[in-house]
Design a protein that fits this description.
By secondary structure, this protein is α+β, with helices and mostly antiparallel strands. A hairpin with a 5-residue loop joins β2 (52-58) and β3 (64-72). The chain has a single domain (3-136), classed as Aminopeptidase. Helix content is 30%, strand content 22%. The relative contact order is 0.16. The protein has helices at 9-12, 17-27, 40-48, 100-114, 131-136, and strands at 3-7, 52-58, 64-72, 83-91, 119-121.
Length: 151
């Protein structure tokens, strides 16, 4: 059984180093030309500014096995609506049993709602498509994102 809690970034960053590597190994494309290189200082700044929020998943022993990081800033086109956006989410494959992934995502939703968010964007990788999970949770697909290598 996992527990879910909002935590301060500075309390989580040391615990999440290996989990971030596991996450990258699980979902990253083009690993040769897009190396894992988290901007920890940038994350610290958004958390210090109150923009970033992290929901963690831990085992009964306290081991970090998952996270959902969301941001909330005034939307440039819809300033009267409080929008939140999922930055990243990950649950270690060993803990993807039953509804644990949904429980993590729902805990992040509750966190953002408690902070005043009215809408929450979540993104998925097309090659690791968990869209059906989000649809089951009441989300609707509204955009497709494209990327082009400009090197």
């Amino acid at each position: 059984m996992l527990t879910f809690q909002e935590e301060k970034f500075e309390h989580v960053v040391d615990d999440c180093m290996q989990l971030v590597i596991d996450h990258w190994e699980d979902v990253a494309l083009n690993k040769n030309d897009t190396p894992l290189d988290p901007n920890w200082e940038g994350y610290a700044q958004i958390f210090d500014a109150g923009i970033g929020h992290i929901m963690t998943a831990r085992t009964e022993e306290g081991k970090l096995v998952g996270y959902s990081v969301c941001t909330m800033v005034p939307h440039l086109r819809y300033k009267s609506v409080k929008w939140a956006e999922g930055d990243i989410f990950f649950l270690h494959p060993d803990y993807r049993k039953g509804r644990e992934g949904i429980r993590l995502l729902k805990a992040a939703e509750h966190m953002m709602k408690a902070l005043g968010a009215e809408k929450l964007y979540q993104k998925i990788k097309l090659h690791k498509d968990v869209g059906k999970v989000f649809e089951h949770m009441g989300y609707h697909a509204i955009e497709r994102v494209y990327v082009k290598d400009l090197k």
